[in-house]
Amino acid sequence: MKLEKVFLIEVVVKNIACIVVFITLLLPGINYEFEALKTSEQGSVLTVLGFLMAASIIGAFELSYAKTHLNSLMHRMLAHSCKFMVYLAVCSLLWIAHKTMEVSDGYFTEWISLSSLLIFVSLVLYDFWDSCGALKPKS
Question: What is the pLDDT of residue 34?
Answer without folding.
Answer: 65
